[in-house]
Amino acid sequence: MKKDRNIIFILPTLGLGGMERVVTELSNHLVQDNYIVSIVTLIKHTIQYDINPKVELITSDIDYTGKIFNKLKIMLNLRHNLKRLKLEENVFLSFGERFNSLSILACRSLGIKEIFVSDRNNPYANNGYVNDKLRNALYPFAKGIIAQTTEAQKHFHKLKLNENILVLNNPIKQIRYKGDSPKSHTILTVGRLDKLKNHEELIDIFTAINDDTWNLVIVGGGELYDHLKSKIENNPLQHNIFLEGPKSNVDDYLNDAEIFAFTSLSEGFPNVLIEAMSVPLACIAYDCKVGPADIIDHNRNGILIPLKNRELFTSELKQLMNDKERRNRLKNEAIKVREKYNINEICRHLVDFINTKMM
Description:
Blueprint: E1 6-11, H1 18-32, E2 36-41, E3 56-58, H2 68-83, E4 90-95, H3 100-109, E5 115-118, H4 129-138, E6 144-147, H5 150-158, E7 165-167, E8 186-190, H6 199-209, E9 215-219, H7 225-233, E10 241-245, H8 250-256, E11 259-262, H9 271-278, E12 282-287, H10 292-295, E13 303-306, H11 310-322, H12 324-334, H13 337-340, H14 343-357
Parallel strand pairs: 1-2, 1-4, 2-3, 4-5, 5-6, 6-7, 8-9, 8-11, 9-10, 11-12, 12-13
Helix pairs in contact: 1-14, 2-3, 3-4, 6-11
């Protein structure tokens, strides 16, 4: 891609979230590599990430309600903001499956054909009848689709949404590694406290193993906090299970733990799993749709358990807790994710893909 070409990212907000972090890191890295980069957001929000001052930032004052006329207003405002930018020599990258169709409509109405879209969610997730219909009708007009996993790529090909689909994993977040600092007998999990993250089952698994020389630490906030807190208070291992709530110092928890356990039932791409492997931790995860199977090579750099096979998850986690040599073998391979998901590699794949489709 020519470095005098303007790369314009479009996404709903720059609030806290995996998609928002990825766009921030891509933008900051590309602008440091002398690309011209802009970010256009679609709805009113508070920016939660540090954006390089060289990145042009265009924000919106529109509150999101989800109503049809609200979405039309968002699309027209996006069209207005895009007209403020130099329209020649631009590449547009829209992130967010619920808004990508609006981005395509805004671009096409301005005669812009150089737009790529990126879905960040589980490709099988229900985004609503209207959103799915718009996606099916409009994605073929994009230059290409950027998927997070091979499973998503296969699904989009099956739907015949676009011939040009790149699998682009998320770049790994910068972790403050503490090297060979002593590890505690801690099993860690990190994520929102909701039904899909399935923390309750992990508590049951830990209870069934019944080893009070280990602790289970759960980091995250959400709607099930009070329910899980009550469950722990009535648990025979209550003094070994810690519900920490949301934390800004997740790196400290990762550095202190020995095992990362992931019982999520559905993912788009589990960033925290890569972060845990990069420390490295010995990781065990359900093979949910989608993501873990793209990251974990079973029994080489982690342990992958068929979804909802609680009995196998319990036995494998217990074995992992009792086998330090196996934990170390897994960690020695897991740490290699630092290179695979390095921001330099991710940006190189993205730029190469765009270049081949812009010819």
